[in-house]
Amino acid sequence: VVIGVLALQGAFEEHQECIEKATGCKTIQVKKPHQLEDIDGIIFPGGESTAMGLIGTVDGMWEALKKFTQSKRPVWGTCAGMILLAERCVGGSAVIENGQSLIGGMDVLVCRNYFGSQISSFEMATPCPPGFEDGGDYPGVFIRAPAILSAGDGIDVLGKVVATPCRQAAVVLRELEEKIANGENVIMMEVVDALDRKNGLRYVDVKKEAAPTDCNEEKKDISASEMEKVELPGAADGTNAREVICAARKKNILITAFHPEITDDYRWHKYFYQMVVESINC
After folding, report:
1. What's the pTM?
2. 12-23 and 267-281 helices cross at what angle (nearest 10)?
């Protein structure tokens, strides 16, 4: 068994160390498209999804990763890697010309930086992977972490947490709710608003511009009726806390919002290794 770890940017060495210790399998750092031919599964690590997208589009790596994801071989995205595997993303950087570059494969709507900035990092109890209940809850480490707001049909939700969105994410969610209510087609939405706390909590609206479409990527056609099916998690009165998805799977693709590679609990790595072995034996 050979498992690759995408090594464009982020915590790829930490993932290598964890899965090697947990399973004894061989790992390689994947930096070029041809290396995908020699692996049985791949991990997209946490890091900076925008930077990964910019680096990955240089030498054809992005298209190669899309083909790999569609090849039925197991893929696991953690934190930033989860963003890359989403079909829809809100809260992206407003300074990137063509918006957040996505590989896709999972019909989920992800909100970047839902839990806050780097200094707001924290650890909380999260559900453990299926079949690995011994040891109780899993210590989920959230670092500028995204959250899954909505999951499509056929996706197995493996974990949820209740958390209050950070200030930026709260504004993004408000804008998103308005767009969905109006039947708008939302594939990607940047951070464009702010909150003013000088005279109590209130929203400050600024001019909104649609993110440009990358002419090199295939356009997604999602009708207004399909957008109406998207249901965002409800907000609790007073706190705005919402129950969001932190782990999910669909067939060969696994995504987690937290960082399993910086804990000494290897259960999620063992779970992914099990996915890879099952894929090889099929």
Report:
1. 0.82
2. 70
